[in-house]
Design goal:
It is a single chain. This protein has 537 residues and is mainly alpha-helical. It has 25 helices and no strands. It has helices spanning 3-24, 36-41, 70-73, 75-88, 92-118, 121-133, 138-142, 147-168, 172-191, 197-210, 214-218, 225-242, 256-275, 295-317, 319-332, 356-373, 376-400, 407-417, 422-434, 438-451, 456-468, 472-485, 490-502, 506-518, 524-534. Helix 5 (92-118) runs antiparallel to helix 6 and helix 8 (147-168) runs parallel beside helix 10 (197-210).
Length: 537
């Protein structure tokens, strides 16, 4: 490459970096919010880098009330947070800086991928700019719980690019590129389970672009054997690490059939977010369909089967277009609701980060083709329209950063987007409670319980607030109600015992603590000592 193209390429990377910085600059003023207590401030595993084996061990389970056993299930994510902790302790600025760099590396990866497929620097720039400024990616970059999506996408891209270089290379370097692709695949899986998508992406790329004839394809099957073995080993490891997590999972809608039907609306939602991304929300709610003839199921099924047909057609007639469309469909498989997802969300904007790579490359490619094929005022009108679109996207991200500033701002966004959702009001109550706004937090907790009388966590949180307000008898009632609703929710037992101790009802407190241990409560030695002390032994 001559000096002039090198300089152009350097300016391209710099321009994309500036776009990312400008769009996400406000997030550096944000604190730890939402699930950050689970991942960062309340996660003892990240407080040390050694031994490395600590990151391959489980941390809690869904049945115990944790989101998922992050440490072990996603060790690369946990290790990255441990690195941040070593450098920044509990200063959120550093964690945001790491997320921004990861996003920037992903942007460069998308740019390089588009460049290789189209053999055009212009396509690479427009694809990278679209990926950098797509509002659907904002949650993945701003929120620390999106770290796993950033890492999985980054290593999926590096794995794909290394595979392409392996196919092009010769001599000793050829083997190095193959090993780098296989290693990236393994790291992507250990970042998040969606990293498995790389195997499907490579198969489509090999079969539909590099080797379209059966004779050519047959000779490359062995190249995927190590990838398949790595996938099997990952699932064996994952099953061992997760242990009892399945006990905390659920089928959304109450049954596998309803869960499957909900997939179609989830798919339609992702398409809307992909092509009309200005309306963002930190929480999305999907109603349980009435049956296959529910209009939302029919609409989603039409979109999905239409996309499948269009992708298969494109793979035959326009292989590169079909490949990029396949990237989107393959990337959605882990998050399309075909398996039970523990927690409170059936879809999330950050889960679109990896699947959107293919569509962003297609969008950049289409923009560049239109630019090349038009002249005069039509060309510059098209350029102006694209620039306006990018400006809107960048502004939307810039403003959306503020939503994630504090626990209260994100919770208020919840209740604004979904005013009938108890989860948002419970979070809002917890945020107000931490600020000492007891009256306001009580209103929020009671609103959550009004919307969902069986919301166990809201009952416990309300009990905590009532106890702090000097109303122990009311707090006791909330804890007992939580236990009736979920006898395995151990925190309710412990908090109830503390309230009883403060009322000098030691015998009752001892009985509650025994029930706490019977349900699998932690710190058995400490609790047993409390029981002996309460009984006067």
């Amino acid at each position: 490459m001559s000096e002039k193209p090198r300089i152009k390429t350097l300016w391209l990377w710099i321009a994309l970096g500036l776009l990312c910085i400008l769009a996400y600059w406000p997030m550096f003023g944000n604190g730890f919010v939402w699930d950050d207590k689970e991942f960062i401030t309340g996660n003892p595993t990240i407080r040390s880098l050694w031994p490395i084996t600590r990151f391959f061990q489980p941390q809690g389970s869904a049945a115990e009330g944790t989101i998922y056993p992050m440490t072990g299930q996603r060790p690369v994510m946990a290790f990255s947070l441990a690195l941040d902790y070593r450098l920044w302790a509990y200063n959120p600025f550093g964690y945001h800086l790491t997320n921004l760099f990861l996003h920037l590396f992903c942007v460069w990866g998308v740019t390089r991928m588009a460049w290789l497929l189209s053999r055009s620097r212009g396509v690479g720039f427009w694809a990278g700019a679209l990926f950098a400024l797509h509002p659907g990616h904002a949650e993945g970059v701003i929120a620390f719980l999106g770290r796993s999506d950033l890492l999985a996408t980054l290593f999926t891209l590096t794995g794909f690019l290394a595979y392409v270089q392996w196919k092009k290379g010769e001599g000793g370097r050829k083997a190095i590129w193959y090993l780098f692709s296989l290693t990236s695949f393994s790291v992507a899986c250990l970042s998040k389970e969606s990293g498995l998508c790389l195997l499907g992406i490579l198969i489509v790329y090999q079969g539909c672009i590099l080797s379209r004839r059966k004779k050519e394809w047959a000779g490359h099957v062995l190249a995927f054997v190590p990838f398949v073995l790595a996938s099997i080993l990952y699932w064996v490891y994952r099953g061992k690490i997760l242990g009892g997590q399945a006990s905390g999972s659920q089928w959304w809608g109450g049954s596998p059939g309803a869960n499957f039907l909900m997939m179609f609306e989830v798919y339609a939602r992702y398409l809307r977010l992909l092509f009309f991304p200005l309306t963002l929300s930190p929480l999305h709610s999907v109603l349980v369909p009435k049956g296959f003839w529910d209009w939302r199921v029919l609409w989603g099924a039409s979109l999905l089967f239409g996309a499948l047909w269009g992708t298969l057609y494109a793979l035959r007639r326009f292989p590169r277009v079909g490949f990029l469309a396949s990237w989107f469909l393959i990337g959605l498989i882990p998050v399309a609701n075909l398996i039970p997802i523990p927690g409170v969300m059936i879809l999330a904007e950050r889960w679109l980060y990896l699947p959107s790579v293919g569509i962003c490359v297609l969008g950049g490619w289409g923009a560049w083709v239109l630019y090349q094929q038009t002249r005069g005022w039509i060309r510059w009108s098209w350029v102006g329209l694209v620039l306006v679109g990018f400006s809107l996207f960048g502004t939307r991200i810039f403003l959306w950063n503020r939503t994630w500033k504090t626990e209260e701002t994100i919770s208020r966004a919840f209740v604004t987007a979904l005013p009938d959702n108890a989860f948002g009001y419970n979070n809002l109550g917890a945020a107000l409670y931490e600020q000492g706004k007891l009256r306001d937090s009580e209103d929020a907790f009671r609103k959550a319980i009004q919307l969902d009388p069986e919301h166990v966590q809201a009952h416990v949180n309300l009990g905590n607030m009532l106890d702090d307000s000097g109303r122990p008898f009311e707090a006791e009632g909330e804890y007992r109600q939580a236990i009736r609703l979920d006898p395995k929710y151990t925190l309710a037992y412990y908090n109830l015992a503390i309230v009883l101790i403060h009322q000098n009802r030691k015998g009752e407190a001892a009985e509650v603590l025994e029930a706490y241990l019977a349900q699998g409560g932690k710190n058995r030695a400490e609790i047993e000592a409390m029981i002996r002390n309460l009984r006067g032994h």
